[in-house]
Amino acid sequence: MIYIAKPYIGEDEKQAVLRVLESGMLAQGKQTAELEARFAALCGVKHAIATSSGTAALHVALLAHGIGPGDEVITSSFTFIASVNSILFVGATPVFADIDSQTFNLDPAQVASVITPRTKAIMPVHLFGQACDMGALQALAEKHNLLIIEDACQAVGARYNGQVVGSFGTGCFSLYATKNVTTGEGGMITTDDDDIDEKCRMIRQHGMKRRYYHEMIGYNYRISDIHAAIGVAQMDRIADFIAKRQYNATYMNEHITSVITPTIAAGCDHVWHQYTIRLDGDRDRDQAVQQLNEAGVGTGIFYPVPAHQQPYLQEMLSTVQLPVTERMAKEVISLPVHPLVSQDDLELIVEQVNTL
To answer: In angstroms, rounded to a whole number, what is the distance separating the alpha carbons of residues 298 and 304?
Structure first.
Protein backbone atom coordinates (compact mmCIF):
# COMPACT_ATOMS: atom_id res chain seq x y z
CA MET A 1 0.00 0.00 0.00
CA ILE A 2 1.21 3.50 -0.87
CA TYR A 3 0.06 5.29 2.27
CA ILE A 4 -1.76 8.60 2.03
CA ALA A 5 0.64 10.02 4.64
CA LYS A 6 3.87 8.81 6.19
CA PRO A 7 6.14 10.80 8.52
CA TYR A 8 9.67 11.23 7.18
CA ILE A 9 11.69 10.42 10.29
CA GLY A 10 15.39 9.83 9.74
CA GLU A 11 18.54 9.32 11.75
CA ASP A 12 18.86 13.05 12.49
CA GLU A 13 15.48 13.11 14.23
CA LYS A 14 16.30 9.96 16.20
CA GLN A 15 19.64 11.30 17.38
CA ALA A 16 18.11 14.67 18.28
CA VAL A 17 15.55 12.97 20.53
CA LEU A 18 18.22 10.76 22.07
CA ARG A 19 20.34 13.81 22.94
CA VAL A 20 17.39 15.39 24.75
CA LEU A 21 16.66 12.18 26.63
CA GLU A 22 20.27 11.86 27.68
CA SER A 23 20.38 15.49 28.82
CA GLY A 24 17.65 14.91 31.38
CA MET A 25 16.00 18.22 30.37
CA LEU A 26 12.81 16.96 28.76
CA ALA A 27 10.36 19.84 29.21
CA GLN A 28 10.14 23.05 27.20
CA GLY A 29 13.66 24.47 26.90
CA LYS A 30 16.55 25.08 24.52
CA GLN A 31 15.23 22.90 21.69
CA THR A 32 11.88 24.68 21.84
CA ALA A 33 13.62 28.06 21.65
CA GLU A 34 15.68 26.85 18.68
CA LEU A 35 12.58 25.61 16.85
CA GLU A 36 10.83 28.92 17.49
CA ALA A 37 13.78 30.87 16.11
CA ARG A 38 13.96 28.69 13.01
CA PHE A 39 10.23 29.02 12.43
CA ALA A 40 10.26 32.80 12.81
CA ALA A 41 13.07 32.99 10.27
CA LEU A 42 11.18 30.75 7.84
CA CYS A 43 8.08 32.95 8.02
CA GLY A 44 9.99 36.23 8.02
CA VAL A 45 8.49 37.42 11.32
CA LYS A 46 9.91 38.59 14.66
CA HIS A 47 8.31 35.97 16.88
CA ALA A 48 7.26 32.33 16.88
CA ILE A 49 5.64 30.65 19.87
CA ALA A 50 5.55 26.85 20.05
CA THR A 51 2.44 25.15 21.41
CA SER A 52 1.26 21.63 22.13
CA SER A 53 -0.86 21.43 18.95
CA GLY A 54 -2.19 23.42 16.01
CA THR A 55 -5.54 23.59 17.79
CA ALA A 56 -3.84 25.13 20.81
CA ALA A 57 -2.09 27.63 18.52
CA LEU A 58 -5.45 28.79 17.12
CA HIS A 59 -7.01 28.99 20.58
CA VAL A 60 -4.11 30.99 22.03
CA ALA A 61 -3.98 33.36 19.06
CA LEU A 62 -7.67 34.18 19.34
CA LEU A 63 -7.38 34.74 23.10
CA ALA A 64 -4.31 36.95 22.68
CA HIS A 65 -6.27 39.18 20.31
CA GLY A 66 -9.11 39.53 22.78
CA ILE A 67 -11.69 37.76 20.61
CA GLY A 68 -14.59 36.46 22.66
CA PRO A 69 -18.35 36.44 23.26
CA GLY A 70 -20.28 38.71 20.91
CA ASP A 71 -17.56 38.61 18.25
CA GLU A 72 -17.85 36.90 14.87
CA VAL A 73 -14.96 35.25 13.04
CA ILE A 74 -15.36 34.46 9.35
CA THR A 75 -13.80 31.21 8.24
CA SER A 76 -14.20 28.23 5.94
CA SER A 77 -16.48 25.27 6.57
CA PHE A 78 -14.24 23.12 4.34
CA THR A 79 -11.55 22.50 6.95
CA PHE A 80 -10.60 20.28 9.84
CA ILE A 81 -12.97 20.98 12.70
CA ALA A 82 -10.24 22.51 14.90
CA SER A 83 -10.50 25.74 12.91
CA VAL A 84 -14.11 26.13 13.98
CA ASN A 85 -13.76 24.71 17.48
CA SER A 86 -11.04 27.21 18.36
CA ILE A 87 -13.50 30.04 17.65
CA LEU A 88 -16.09 28.37 19.87
CA PHE A 89 -13.49 27.83 22.62
CA VAL A 90 -13.24 31.61 23.13
CA GLY A 91 -17.01 32.09 23.06
CA ALA A 92 -17.06 33.76 19.64
CA THR A 93 -19.32 32.81 16.74
CA PRO A 94 -17.96 31.18 13.59
CA VAL A 95 -19.46 32.60 10.39
CA PHE A 96 -18.96 30.53 7.25
CA ALA A 97 -18.19 31.85 3.80
CA ASP A 98 -18.14 29.68 0.70
CA ILE A 99 -14.99 28.61 -1.11
CA ASP A 100 -13.52 28.74 -4.60
CA SER A 101 -13.95 25.43 -6.44
CA GLN A 102 -10.48 25.61 -8.02
CA THR A 103 -8.41 26.23 -4.89
CA PHE A 104 -10.74 24.97 -2.10
CA ASN A 105 -9.92 28.21 -0.24
CA LEU A 106 -12.18 31.06 0.90
CA ASP A 107 -13.76 33.09 -1.88
CA PRO A 108 -13.10 36.74 -0.96
CA ALA A 109 -16.39 37.84 -2.53
CA GLN A 110 -18.25 35.42 -0.29
CA VAL A 111 -16.30 36.66 2.72
CA ALA A 112 -17.33 40.22 1.91
CA SER A 113 -20.97 39.17 1.79
CA VAL A 114 -21.05 37.91 5.40
CA ILE A 115 -19.22 40.77 7.16
CA THR A 116 -21.38 42.40 9.85
CA PRO A 117 -20.81 45.00 12.58
CA ARG A 118 -19.98 42.08 14.91
CA THR A 119 -17.20 40.72 12.69
CA LYS A 120 -13.89 40.89 14.52
CA ALA A 121 -11.59 38.73 12.41
CA ILE A 122 -11.13 36.69 9.26
CA MET A 123 -9.58 33.25 9.67
CA PRO A 124 -8.40 32.16 6.21
CA VAL A 125 -7.56 28.46 6.01
CA HIS A 126 -4.65 27.79 3.64
CA LEU A 127 -6.08 24.40 2.74
CA PHE A 128 -4.01 21.48 1.46
CA GLY A 129 -0.85 23.65 1.34
CA GLN A 130 -1.97 26.52 -0.90
CA ALA A 131 -2.27 30.11 0.31
CA CYS A 132 -5.61 31.88 0.18
CA ASP A 133 -6.06 35.04 -1.90
CA MET A 134 -4.40 37.15 0.75
CA GLY A 135 -4.35 40.32 -1.34
CA ALA A 136 -8.14 40.41 -1.50
CA LEU A 137 -8.58 39.26 2.10
CA GLN A 138 -6.14 41.86 3.43
CA ALA A 139 -8.00 44.55 1.50
CA LEU A 140 -11.25 43.46 3.16
CA ALA A 141 -9.60 43.39 6.57
CA GLU A 142 -8.22 46.91 6.14
CA LYS A 143 -11.52 48.27 4.83
CA HIS A 144 -13.51 46.88 7.77
CA ASN A 145 -10.80 47.11 10.46
CA LEU A 146 -10.63 43.35 10.96
CA LEU A 147 -7.93 41.09 12.34
CA ILE A 148 -6.44 38.28 10.28
CA ILE A 149 -5.76 35.01 12.12
CA GLU A 150 -4.23 32.64 9.55
CA ASP A 151 -4.98 28.95 9.87
CA ALA A 152 -1.80 27.84 8.14
CA CYS A 153 -1.83 24.42 9.80
CA GLN A 154 -1.42 22.65 6.44
CA ALA A 155 0.81 25.20 4.74
CA VAL A 156 4.26 25.44 6.33
CA GLY A 157 6.45 27.27 3.80
CA ALA A 158 3.68 28.18 1.34
CA ARG A 159 3.88 31.62 -0.28
CA TYR A 160 1.52 34.19 -1.73
CA ASN A 161 3.24 36.61 -4.11
CA GLY A 162 6.55 35.68 -2.51
CA GLN A 163 5.39 36.29 1.07
CA VAL A 164 5.31 33.30 3.40
CA VAL A 165 2.01 32.41 5.03
CA GLY A 166 1.94 33.15 8.71
CA SER A 167 3.22 36.67 8.09
CA PHE A 168 -0.02 38.29 6.84
CA GLY A 169 -1.51 38.50 10.32
CA THR A 170 -1.10 36.15 13.26
CA GLY A 171 -0.21 32.74 11.85
CA CYS A 172 -1.11 29.35 13.33
CA PHE A 173 0.55 26.10 12.25
CA SER A 174 0.18 22.43 13.09
CA LEU A 175 3.21 20.17 13.52
CA TYR A 176 1.14 16.98 13.75
CA ALA A 177 2.64 13.70 12.56
CA THR A 178 1.24 13.92 9.02
CA LYS A 179 2.17 17.55 8.38
CA ASN A 180 4.94 18.72 6.03
CA VAL A 181 7.10 19.47 9.09
CA THR A 182 6.35 17.42 12.18
CA THR A 183 7.19 17.28 15.86
CA GLY A 184 4.81 14.34 16.36
CA GLU A 185 2.36 16.61 18.15
CA GLY A 186 2.79 20.36 18.26
CA GLY A 187 1.89 23.75 16.88
CA MET A 188 3.29 27.22 16.28
CA ILE A 189 2.07 30.82 16.37
CA THR A 190 3.85 33.50 14.32
CA THR A 191 3.60 37.27 14.73
CA ASP A 192 5.43 40.57 14.31
CA ASP A 193 3.53 42.09 17.24
CA ASP A 194 5.53 42.23 20.48
CA ASP A 195 2.39 42.50 22.62
CA ILE A 196 0.73 39.48 20.96
CA ASP A 197 3.95 37.51 21.38
CA GLU A 198 4.03 38.26 25.12
CA LYS A 199 0.35 37.39 25.58
CA CYS A 200 0.70 34.13 23.67
CA ARG A 201 3.66 33.06 25.79
CA MET A 202 1.72 33.82 28.97
CA ILE A 203 -1.45 32.05 27.85
CA ARG A 204 0.61 29.02 26.81
CA GLN A 205 2.03 28.72 30.34
CA HIS A 206 -0.75 29.27 32.88
CA GLY A 207 -0.72 33.06 32.49
CA MET A 208 2.80 33.41 33.83
CA LYS A 209 5.38 35.97 32.80
CA ARG A 210 7.51 35.06 35.82
CA ARG A 211 7.41 31.64 37.43
CA TYR A 212 4.50 31.34 39.89
CA TYR A 213 3.30 34.91 39.22
CA HIS A 214 0.06 34.47 37.29
CA GLU A 215 -1.13 37.64 35.55
CA MET A 216 -4.02 36.14 33.59
CA ILE A 217 -5.88 32.89 33.05
CA GLY A 218 -3.76 30.58 30.98
CA TYR A 219 -3.40 26.97 29.88
CA ASN A 220 -0.80 24.25 29.76
CA TYR A 221 -0.18 24.42 26.04
CA ARG A 222 3.59 23.88 26.17
CA ILE A 223 5.55 21.63 23.85
CA SER A 224 8.32 19.40 25.20
CA ASP A 225 11.94 19.56 24.09
CA ILE A 226 11.59 15.95 22.93
CA HIS A 227 9.01 17.04 20.38
CA ALA A 228 10.85 20.26 19.53
CA ALA A 229 14.07 18.37 18.80
CA ILE A 230 12.28 16.41 16.07
CA GLY A 231 11.07 19.69 14.58
CA VAL A 232 14.52 21.28 14.60
CA ALA A 233 15.89 18.32 12.66
CA GLN A 234 12.97 18.53 10.25
CA MET A 235 13.60 22.23 9.62
CA ASP A 236 17.02 21.33 8.21
CA ARG A 237 15.25 19.43 5.43
CA ILE A 238 12.13 21.49 4.82
CA ALA A 239 13.33 22.76 1.44
CA ASP A 240 13.91 19.17 0.30
CA PHE A 241 10.52 18.07 1.64
CA ILE A 242 8.73 20.83 -0.23
CA ALA A 243 10.67 20.23 -3.46
CA LYS A 244 9.79 16.51 -3.42
CA ARG A 245 6.11 17.22 -2.78
CA GLN A 246 6.11 19.76 -5.61
CA TYR A 247 7.77 17.27 -7.97
CA ASN A 248 5.26 14.56 -7.07
CA ALA A 249 2.31 16.91 -7.56
CA THR A 250 3.64 18.22 -10.88
CA TYR A 251 4.12 14.68 -12.16
CA MET A 252 0.57 13.72 -11.26
CA ASN A 253 -0.86 16.92 -12.73
CA GLU A 254 0.96 16.22 -16.00
CA HIS A 255 -0.06 12.57 -16.26
CA ILE A 256 -3.51 12.20 -14.69
CA THR A 257 -6.22 12.71 -17.31
CA SER A 258 -9.32 10.97 -15.98
CA VAL A 259 -10.34 13.38 -13.22
CA ILE A 260 -10.11 17.07 -12.27
CA THR A 261 -6.59 17.72 -10.99
CA PRO A 262 -5.61 20.46 -8.52
CA THR A 263 -5.12 24.07 -9.61
CA ILE A 264 -2.27 26.32 -8.50
CA ALA A 265 -3.56 29.88 -8.19
CA ALA A 266 -1.59 32.75 -9.69
CA GLY A 267 1.13 33.99 -7.36
CA CYS A 268 1.00 30.92 -5.11
CA ASP A 269 3.79 28.52 -4.22
CA HIS A 270 1.86 25.40 -3.27
CA VAL A 271 3.55 23.09 -0.74
CA TRP A 272 1.15 20.16 -1.26
CA HIS A 273 0.18 18.93 2.16
CA GLN A 274 -2.49 17.09 0.20
CA TYR A 275 -2.87 16.38 -3.52
CA THR A 276 -6.62 16.47 -4.03
CA ILE A 277 -8.46 15.40 -7.18
CA ARG A 278 -12.16 15.75 -7.91
CA LEU A 279 -14.65 13.29 -9.36
CA ASP A 280 -17.10 15.55 -11.16
CA GLY A 281 -20.68 14.79 -11.99
CA ASP A 282 -22.40 11.71 -10.60
CA ARG A 283 -19.36 9.44 -10.46
CA ASP A 284 -19.29 7.05 -7.51
CA ARG A 285 -16.58 8.22 -5.11
CA ASP A 286 -16.90 5.24 -2.77
CA GLN A 287 -16.35 2.89 -5.69
CA ALA A 288 -13.36 4.92 -6.88
CA VAL A 289 -11.80 4.86 -3.41
CA GLN A 290 -12.33 1.13 -3.11
CA GLN A 291 -10.80 0.53 -6.54
CA LEU A 292 -7.71 2.61 -5.72
CA ASN A 293 -7.25 1.01 -2.31
CA GLU A 294 -7.51 -2.49 -3.74
CA ALA A 295 -4.81 -1.54 -6.25
CA GLY A 296 -2.50 -0.42 -3.45
CA VAL A 297 -3.07 3.32 -3.67
CA GLY A 298 -3.93 4.89 -0.34
CA THR A 299 -6.53 7.65 -0.31
CA GLY A 300 -8.04 10.21 2.02
CA ILE A 301 -11.22 12.27 1.92
CA PHE A 302 -10.70 15.71 3.43
CA TYR A 303 -13.43 16.53 4.36
CA PRO A 304 -16.56 14.43 3.77
CA VAL A 305 -18.80 16.46 6.10
CA PRO A 306 -18.19 20.23 6.12
CA ALA A 307 -18.25 21.96 9.46
CA HIS A 308 -21.60 23.67 8.90
CA GLN A 309 -23.21 20.23 8.38
CA GLN A 310 -21.83 18.72 11.59
CA PRO A 311 -24.80 17.97 13.89
CA TYR A 312 -23.60 19.91 16.93
CA LEU A 313 -22.93 23.02 14.85
CA GLN A 314 -26.30 22.78 13.13
CA GLU A 315 -27.91 22.82 16.56
CA MET A 316 -25.78 25.74 17.70
CA LEU A 317 -25.63 28.05 14.67
CA SER A 318 -28.11 29.43 12.18
CA THR A 319 -28.72 27.45 9.00
CA VAL A 320 -26.30 28.24 6.21
CA GLN A 321 -26.02 26.96 2.65
CA LEU A 322 -22.61 26.75 1.02
CA PRO A 323 -23.16 25.16 -2.39
CA VAL A 324 -19.53 25.06 -3.52
CA THR A 325 -18.32 23.68 -0.20
CA GLU A 326 -21.05 21.04 -0.21
CA ARG A 327 -20.21 19.99 -3.76
CA MET A 328 -16.47 19.76 -3.08
CA ALA A 329 -17.10 17.61 -0.01
CA LYS A 330 -18.79 15.06 -2.27
CA GLU A 331 -16.20 15.11 -5.05
CA VAL A 332 -12.73 15.21 -3.47
CA ILE A 333 -10.21 12.38 -3.06
CA SER A 334 -6.66 12.99 -1.84
CA LEU A 335 -3.77 10.91 -3.17
CA PRO A 336 -0.29 10.24 -1.72
CA VAL A 337 2.08 13.15 -2.39
CA HIS A 338 4.48 12.98 0.58
CA PRO A 339 8.28 12.83 0.14
CA LEU A 340 8.47 9.05 0.58
CA VAL A 341 6.38 8.49 -2.58
CA SER A 342 8.83 7.01 -5.12
CA GLN A 343 8.85 7.29 -8.90
CA ASP A 344 7.46 3.76 -9.15
CA ASP A 345 4.73 4.78 -6.72
CA LEU A 346 3.88 7.83 -8.84
CA GLU A 347 3.58 5.72 -11.97
CA LEU A 348 1.27 3.26 -10.20
CA ILE A 349 -0.87 6.07 -8.79
CA VAL A 350 -1.25 7.67 -12.23
CA GLU A 351 -1.99 4.33 -13.88
CA GLN A 352 -4.69 3.44 -11.38
CA VAL A 353 -6.31 6.89 -11.25
CA ASN A 354 -6.53 6.94 -15.05
CA THR A 355 -8.67 3.78 -14.94
CA LEU A 356 -11.38 5.52 -12.91
So the answer is: 16
Please identify every residue annotated as catalytic: 179
How remote is the C-alpha of 270 from its chain's centroid? 13
C-alpha neighbours within 13 Å on the C-beta side of residue 243: 4
Query: SS3 of 93, please?
Result: strand
Domain boundary among 193, 216, 235: 235
What 3-state class would DSSP assign to 200?
helix
Q: What is the mean pLDDT of each run of 10 residues along the chain (356 residues)?
A: 96 98 96 98 98 98 98 98 98 98 98 98 98 98 98 98 98 98 98 98 96 96 98 97 98 98 98 97 94 98 98 93 97 98 98 98
Listed residue (242, 243, 241, 352) closest to 299, CA to CA: 352
Range of the domain at 302: 238-353
Looking at the structure of the chain, the number of domains it has is 2
How far apart, in whole angstroms, are the C-alpha atoms of residue 113 and residue 97?
Answer: 8
Residue 4 counted as domain residue: no
**Strand-strand pairing, 208-210 and 213-214:** antiparallel
| Spatial contact of 75 and 123, defined as CB atoms under 8 Å apart | yes
User: 231: part of which helix (H) or strand (E)?
Assistant: helix 225-235
pTM, 2 dp: 0.97
